[in-house]
Amino acid sequence: MKAIIATTVFGVIMMFAGLWVNDKKSIAGLATFLFAALLGVTIWDLTTTSVNSPKSLFNDMLRSEHYSLWFNTIMTGCSLLYVLLMGKEVQKVGKYVSEYFALIFFILCGLYLLSMYNNLLMMFIGIEILSIPQYILAGSDKRNLKSSEASLKYFLMGAFSTGILLMGITLLYGAARTFNITEMVTLMHSDALNPLALAGILFIMIAFSFKVSAAPMHMWTPDVYDGSPTVFTAFMATVVKSAAFFAFLRLFQVSFNSLSEHWVMVLAIITAATLLVGNVTAVFQQSVKRMLAYSSIAQAGFMLFAVLAVNAVAWQGIIIYAVAYSVATIGIFAVLVKLKDYTYDGFNGLAQREPLLAFVTTIFLFSLAGIPLTGGFMAKYYVLLAVVQQGQLMWLVIFALLMAAISVYYYFRVIIAMYFKAGTPEISSPVTGGDKFMLVVTCALVILLGVLPQLFLTKV
Amino acid sequence: MANLVYLVPLFPLIGFLINGIFWKRMPKTLGGVIGCVAILASFIISLGIFFEVKSASFQGPLVVKLFDFIQSGNLNIHFDFQVDALSSLFLLIITGIGFLIHVYSTSYMGHDEGMVKYFAYLNLFVFSMLLLVLGANYLIMFIGWEGVGLCSYLLIGFWFKNRDYTNAAKKAFVMNRIGDLGFLVGMLLILFNYGTLAYQDVFAKLPAAHTETSSMYNWIALCLFIGAMGKSAQIPLYTWLPDAMAGPTPVSALIHAATMVTAGIYMIARSHALYDLAPMALDLVAVIGLATALLAATIALYQNDIKKVLAYSTVSQLGFMFLALGVGAYTTGVFHVMTHAFFKALLFLGAGSVIHAMGGEQDIKNMGGLRKKLPITYITFLIGVLAIAGFPFTSGFVSKDEILLAVYEHNKVFFYLAAFAAVLTAIYMFRLLMLVFMGGFRGTHDQEHHLHESPAAITIPLIILAIFSLVGGFVQIPHLFGGHDYLNQFLGKAGVPAVIHEGPGLEMKEWTLFGATCVGLLVIFLATKKLFAVSQFDGNYSGFKKVLANKWYVDELYDTIIVKPIGALSGILDKFAEKAGIDGLVNGVGKTVRWGGDRMRLLQTGQVGFYIFIMVLGMVALFTLGFFWIK
Amino acid sequence: MDARTIIFYLLAATVIGGGLMAVTSRKIFRSAVFLLFSLIGIAGFYFFLDQEFIAAVQVVVYVGGIVVLILFSIFLTHGSGEDMKKPALGRAVFSALAAAIGCVLTMYLISEHTFQGSGKPALEPSAGNIGAQMLSVTEYGFILPFEVVSMLLLAAMIGCIVIAIKVKVPEQKVMPKIKEETEPVELEVVEELKTEEV
């Protein structure tokens, strides 16, 4: 709860900072400081809440479970990492730097709500708080038509999915007679499930599929991720997506766990379609940024495994996947913004010009591809393990492994371009010592995740 | 000493980090020294561990716990190392031969720009390989497994300026991924059935041999074997290994002959308890091994690239090892890994010395008569050839003899086929030897002028390996000649069962084999000269020989049955998609299309209405599924 | 057939008819006006169900706010008087089909299965009660959602300003987009920009 208040206040502070401070650099510095403070607050929240007895807040509107607070802390950490890596780039997008940071703080507020909600109403509001700042960030580069287009598309389609979500919530309320997701469990029974409830579950599933860009609701992703300013794409594709996934998992794990026989097959088909579309289409991309958009769809396919497996390991899976995926992707985007040309050819010969950049990118790509001893491997391992322990859907697991093998192809294309092809990549902004230091830290995190995943997990 | 086992992989890791981080700034010599010292340190500790394991006081496998790796629910996977006879033997092979090859590389790669980077990769490879054999559970083995694949990829593509080289690297990686998929599925099946991945726990849960049959054992064993196929280059996933010769020669010696490619054999020997319960999978191992041994041997007969001959010979020898495993002679398979590591590393390094002397020339058409100019290389190479051909009392003789004997006990048909493959081995190796070292020089004048014996850093490893190739087999020499099966006893400590060498019938067979080998080799040696027209060799073949020289057209076959149909399918999709009217919506995007297969991308027409339309369509489909199909 | 039924069907006809016309009309201005009818019909349903407060909110927010805003923005765009392009036949058919399937599915669900009441005592839906609940922390208290929604609106407002505020674009002309319907602030900004650009 403290974190929710803090992030709102910090957002407001950032807004006012824009009035009084004209220097972009000091605004970014202030933002960095506030993000660090926010991390402190989330840790404070975490340490002051008992592990075994979750605190219920405001008539059970929110419930601060230990794993929710842990997720908050980790994702705030990722946001801090993001600001440290890309704060400089945010300044370049446009004039309203303080507003951009304020919006990011508001997004984090949505994230906290989504990790702790215990009421469908809060879930809905959380999703909206998460989404609306994103529509704006997507369109923040007003000099670029593509950015405005991305914003508009995202907004229109987001509105459509909001409608679906509301429809689902309504039907569910009608069938379960409550908005409270823990109470709901006792009111719905698998053997006599009201088809209205099933329709509600399916609607909510589809709306969440949109938010996490799972097929067939993924169509917005490439356009929006490609069109938005790269710095904000990095945030949208990582922290925001993880938050949506956590909310997805929370609802389906807490409320619909016992009803899984009704929906698990539908979600399995969504998962298979997502994996297929994401991986196969990514192979044919020419632009690395767009490839990363498809790769985020493919990675979503893996994260869906956590939702599919209704057991305790799934929580750990989603947390480790969220952090492993976020850290590696933020790292890649941090390298990407340094380049002028986002196509594969733009990476040609990077290893010669900026060996460190090329090296860390390689590690990040290894992680995304799921090569052992990087975080990505552990993440994939955990989510697949969750499903394997459930004892069903082995076909899907094997399919996912096959798709992971395909993904190696397009991730390694970047490595081949960097190391095995000659060229002179154009750098858009100088790579300073501080950048290098932060990239090395990020890279170390990726490897630490792969070697000691325990550090990032918590009791569920 | 065994408690210090974590130091063994630690040194190469440190070496990798130092060389990897400072590769731009570090002088070449220092990089080489760091690389070598790291492996030497590992080797010394491995020696200590080996002798401790060998001592009578060592009780059973020792699991050294490092830290908790994965903890979730009731599943608990530790990052542990397992020290027992099997792993300590592999440690010695990896670090020992690895060290020699590192030393060799300091000279061989001395002129290369990226030498420090090369040593970084090489150290990383050794580190991964050590993880692979030291791990106490399948997960760590898999981590090492992926790691060695990655390093092999990096090292094959080391000279990336040549496009073929990067293609070879890609091919190796893709084929290995196919194999890895099998391994992963096998691992998941184990996890699913036994709830653990630790070797000791899994094997403890297996029933005693042959008391219970279940197809599950066969499935798991089969999946693991698919992994082994990829890594150890067996039919149908073997074509990457010959292509992998694009990398530097010491890499071929270390990775593609002595260590990495034997990972599959290690895995099966490690999982022998499982394979004992899976007779069908075991038969498949034997058949695939035999078929690979034969096929690769026939291809090796007419190759003109010195490294390709050795590569196919490696594939063939790996086939022998799998054959041994497949007939249940696990220790024999491991023994052949050891002797093969000696003589094949020797042969590759010798080939490297020849290539070095010839100024990068690999085609044997242009060689010949090198024995005078490269005496040390010649003698050591000769020893290697004798060993691989199975000249009595060399290491290759002992191990191959043991394999043949074990196969004879198992299945007579297999025996004759395997014996034939062994004869072919001798033929192509003698051919290589003669074409390279005998007769007159066929290359250009410049090359002849340039010929010289390699420096000590190259010849000393050759000499050491030659000695081992000669005497390395004594540990397991047949009882007939006063042997004591030291290796079998040693491996027996790890619970790896041996085939019995005793028995009344065996002595007779042993004599027969021995006699046949002696006579056979003599005949082959004399016949080879004539058979291959060594004196007027021009490198052109016709008829059936051409089929062999073209590797039975397997690459072309894969191209026809896999690559082309996929291309055709994209073509059909292309047409279909265009007819379906998507083309009209595409406007402009079509111009950037590279090939026909990416129609899926074209669905992204950029029109919100169309996106929403697809979403609605998807929703309708999912609802139909949710309501009418699932319930 | 009593008066209630007749009123119900009249309201339903307004809602559905308005909606249909809004979708099919080829003049964007008329579409907006038909939308108005549809929304008024829904307000009528709330009155019909004795939910006066919600009915009033529906009228004030949707009819008075959003639709008027839409009408204004239509006036400000160039092609407001012209006919819109006819949609492709295929797409029109598919859209109709999708709508029909959605309709059938909903009808089927609602006619076959019904919602049940929660059994908890109902609260008088007066404006006073609703207002009190919005700020209450007791049972049925919604202070947290209420406060958080205000934060949401704050974020939306910042967004509008960031999007709508003028930037100097030398080479390409970029029209600011209408992002948030609920913001009156936006209208002024858009107007300002328009006059400057023309």
3D architecture notes:
Chain A is an all-alpha fold and 460 residues long. Chain A has helices at 2-20, 24-48, 66-93, 97-116, 120-138, 145-176, 181-187, 195-211, 220-227, 230-254, 260-283, 288-308, 312-336, 350-353, 355-369, 375-390, 394-420, 433-451; strands at 55-57, 62-64. In chain A, helix 3 packs antiparallel against helix 10 (230-254), helix 12 packs parallel to helix 16 and helix 15 packs antiparallel against helix 17. In chain B, strand 1 and strand 2 form a beta hairpin. In chain B, helix 1 (7-21) packs antiparallel against helix 2 (28-54), helix 3 packs parallel to helix 15 and helix 6 packs antiparallel against helix 8 (215-231). With 198 residues, chain C is mainly α. Chain C has three domains: 1-83, NADH-ubiquinone/plastoquinone oxidoreductase chain 6, subunit NuoJ (Four Helix Bundle (Hemerythrin (Met), subunit A)), CATH 1.20.120; 88-114; 141-198, no CATH class. Chain C is 69% helix and 0% strand. Chain C is built from seven helices and no strands. Chain C has helices at residues 3-24, 28-48, 52-76, 89-112, 127-134, 143-164, 184-197. In chain C, helix 6 runs parallel beside helix 7 (184-197). Chain C starts with a helix and ends with a helix. Classes of the chains: A mainly alpha (460), B mainly alpha (631), C mainly alpha (198).
Roughly how much helix do the residues of chain A carry, as a percent range?
A: over 70%
Averaged pLDDT of chain A: 88
Total E-strand runs of chain A: 2
H and E string of chain C: HHHHHHH
CATH homologous superfamily (4th level) name of the largest domain in chain C? NADH-ubiquinone/plastoquinone oxidoreductase chain 6, subunit NuoJ
Shape of chain A: globular
For the record, give the distance between the C-alpha atoms at the N and C termini of chain C, rounded to a whole number. Answer: 59 Å
Question: Strand order of the main beta sheet of chain A, please?
Answer: 1-2
Considering the chains and any ligands shown, give keywords for the structure.
heterotrimer, B: 631 residues, mainly alpha, 3 domains, 2 strands, C: 198 residues, Four Helix Bundle (Hemerythrin (Met), subunit A), disordered C terminus
